[in-house]
């Protein structure tokens, strides 16, 4: 018994180390364009998508009746199809199709004679359906072999498995230079700190190696860019508006929506040598026509189309406009303790521009608060912000301790801050800024 067991183990070791079937796909890997599959240009239903040629390198001689299996992960075969393995070594080895499931093809060796069998090949037009059409999804092929009695004659190695399909983003958009100018409070919030601001979005176009998923776009009109955010003060192009400034998308003036919350333009797809789109924000240079600009975050929706099918990449962050005002931070402020402790803040404004007051904060429990006060830090006055003002703005129902940030939309040099609290009748205690 011991001798038989030892002999069997020895034969198994010899066969598994010498008789391997490896997947050789060094010249047969496809990239698929995600856009074509997502918008229906190339349907993911066995009608359009195919595997590249899959070559199996045989490590040793096979016997008639041996079984070769090809396994698919990340995609499926159509089990109703008929499949074939072909070889240039017909005098040495041939294999016939035996059966198919969604994830496995089974072949039986029908010819095996003396000589060196180099490879068996699954044809390059084999239909496939992907489990996922998301960017980065992969389809992997593995292969193994066994005798007619089910004894493995293949050992898993580094070349027994190969990625044969990768899904790529064919049209890629990324903002490389975001909006960075500020709305100038010293000029009544009607101008940027510079005459204009430019954001730059890089565009990358990659051709997939599987031609059926190459979704190119109509020249000149196939790329529509929509900027989302406040267009107040950038309304050129809106019917009935005066020339209040522009936002241009790669030199094309944005057509502004009636609600002033978006503007769009169709532009030419940049060539590979000019892979950038410029977004230029220019308020009106004429003082009498200027309006107050809104603080706003901006995003871009990029819609690509061939005239029939469209894919949209939404929400690409373009940057934002904020105010170049004044701010102060207080690390500890007791608020809403019902008279046991009262807190008050004072904002002095020696300038000529009224400032909107925003307060933000968080408490020891990690709750966040933010509000715009219903009154201004008026020019030439001292404005008081009371304990009750803060409690009402934040909707507080109990006393709490806050880290507070005050932001005043007026020139920083014109604003001063003070703060103090009273504990019962024991007198005033100053609260210092950070």
Structure description:
This protein is mostly beta strands and 434 residues long. The chain folds into three domains: 2-168, Sandwich (Immunoglobulin-like); 171-321, Immunoglobulin-like (Sandwich); 326-430, Hypothetical Protein Tm1070, Chain: A (Sandwich). Helix content is 7%, strand content 45%. It has three helices and 30 strands. A six-stranded mixed sheet has the order 2-12-11-4-8-7. Strands 13-14-20-16-17 form a five-stranded antiparallel sheet, with no helix packed on it. A five-stranded antiparallel sheet has the order 18-19-15-21-22. The radius of gyration is 35 Å and the shape is elongated.
**Number of DSSP strands?**
30
Q: What gap, in angstroms, lies between the N and C termini?
A: 85 Å
As a whole number of angstroms, the C-alpha radius of gyration is 35 Å
The average pLDDT score comes to 85
The low-pLDDT segments are: 1-19
Give the neighbour order of strands across the main sheet.
2-12-11-4-8-7
């Amino acid at each position: 018994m011991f001798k038989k067991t030892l002999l069997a183990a020895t034969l198994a070791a010899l066969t598994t180390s010498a008789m391997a079937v490896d997947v050789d796909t060094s010249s047969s890997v496809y990239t698929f364009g995600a856009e074509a599959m997502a918008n229906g240009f190339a349907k993911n239903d066995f009608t359009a998508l195919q595997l590249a040629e899959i070559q199996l390198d045989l490590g040793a001689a096979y016997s008639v009746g041996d079984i070769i299996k090809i396994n698919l992960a990340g995609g499926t075969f159509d089990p109703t199809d008929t499949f074939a393995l072909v070889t240039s070594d017909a005098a040495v080895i041939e294999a016939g199709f035996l059966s198919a499931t969604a994830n496995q093809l089974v072949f039986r060796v029908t010819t095996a004679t003396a000589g060196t069998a180099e490879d068996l090949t699954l044809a390059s037009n084999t239909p496939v359906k992907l489990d996922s059409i998301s960017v980065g999804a992969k389809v992997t092929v593995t292969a193994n072999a066994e005798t007619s009695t089910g004894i493995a004659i293949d050992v898993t190695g580094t070349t027994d498995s190969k990625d044969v399909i990768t899904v790529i983003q064919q049209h890629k958009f990324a903002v490389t230079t975001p909006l960075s100018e500020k709305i100038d409070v010293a000029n009544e919030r009607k101008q940027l700190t510079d005459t204009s601001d430019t954001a730059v979005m890089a565009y990358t176009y990659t051709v997939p190696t599987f031609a059926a998923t190459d979704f190119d776009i109509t020249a000149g009109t196939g790329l529509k860019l929509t900027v989302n955010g406040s267009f107040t003060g950038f309304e050129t192009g809106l019917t009935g508006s005066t020339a209040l400034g522009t936002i241009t998308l790669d030199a094309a003036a944005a057509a502004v929506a009636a609600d002033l919350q978006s503007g769009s333009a169709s532009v030419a797809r940049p060539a590979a040598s000019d892979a950038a789109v410029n977004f230029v924000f220019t308020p009106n240079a004429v003082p009498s026509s200027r309006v107050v600009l809104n603080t706003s975050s901006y995003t871009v929706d990029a819609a690509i189309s061939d005239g029939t099918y469209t894919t949209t990449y939404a929400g690409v962050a373009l940057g934002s406009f904020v105010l170049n005002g004044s701010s102060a931070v207080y690390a500890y402020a007791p608020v809403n303790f019902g008279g046991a402790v009262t807190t008050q803040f004072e904002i002095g404004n020696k300038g000529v521009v009224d400032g909107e007051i925003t307060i933000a904060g968080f408490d020891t429990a990690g709750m966040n608060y933010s509000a715009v006060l219903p009154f201004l830090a008026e020019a030439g006055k001292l404005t008081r912000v009371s304990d009750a003002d803060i409690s009402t703005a934040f909707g507080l129902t109990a006393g709490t301790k806050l880290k507070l940030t005050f932001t005043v939309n007026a020139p920083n040099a014109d604003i001063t801050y003070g703060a103090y609290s009273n504990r019962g009748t024991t007198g005033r205690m100053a609260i210092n800024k950070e």
